[in-house]
Amino acid sequence: MTKTSAEIDPVRLTAVREILGTETLRDTIDAAFRQVMRTHAVYGLFEPAREGGFAALLEPLTNRGLVSMCGVTELEALFSARNIDQRARMKRQLAESMDRVETPTDVGSCPPAACPRAHANG
């Protein structure tokens, strides 16, 4: 770890603490770093799309019915958009490349074969 000093806007710090649910300055900074790295990683998933290869990568799987998207998946993917134009492009690319699957309102009622992750822990 590197120890450093920096000027921090107390209003922004309070807002970020509330958003992240942290109490200490160190926890807030660590959580903010994790969030930025997570967002960057999700954004990186769309690198093939920017290069025109996203559909080509997913098409064989989609044609076999192995790839689809639900509202939660779309929300996670679109969360990484850096601006409204990028969000619109990402949403269009997702819609063009994957079928949409409705998310059950009660995941517990989803059959294990259709929702293996929901049933993974019993």
Explain how this protein is built.
- With 122 residues, this protein is mostly helical.
- It has two domains: 10-42, no CATH class; 45-102, Rossmann fold.
- The chain has six helices and two strands.
- A two-stranded parallel sheet has the order 1-2.
- The chain starts with 9 loop residues before the first helix and ends in a 22-residue tail after the last strand.
- 2% of the residues are buried.
- The model has no long low-confidence stretch (mean pLDDT 79).
Q: State the low-pLDDT regions, or none.
A: none
Number of strands: 2
Strand content: under 5%
Number of helices: 6
Q: What strand line-up does the widest sheet have? A: 1-2
Distance between the termini: 40 Å
CATH class of the largest domain: Alpha Beta
Q: What is the CATH architecture term of the largest domain?
A: 3-Layer(aba) Sandwich
Number of domains: 2
- Average pLDDT over all residues: 79
Question: Strand pairing plus helix content: what structural class?
Answer: mainly alpha
Q: Can you summarize the main beta sheet? A: 2 strands, parallel
According to CATH, the homologous superfamily of the largest domain is 5'-nuclease
Order of helices and strands: HHHHEHHE
Radius of gyration (Å) = 19 Å
The CATH topology name of the largest domain reads Rossmann fold
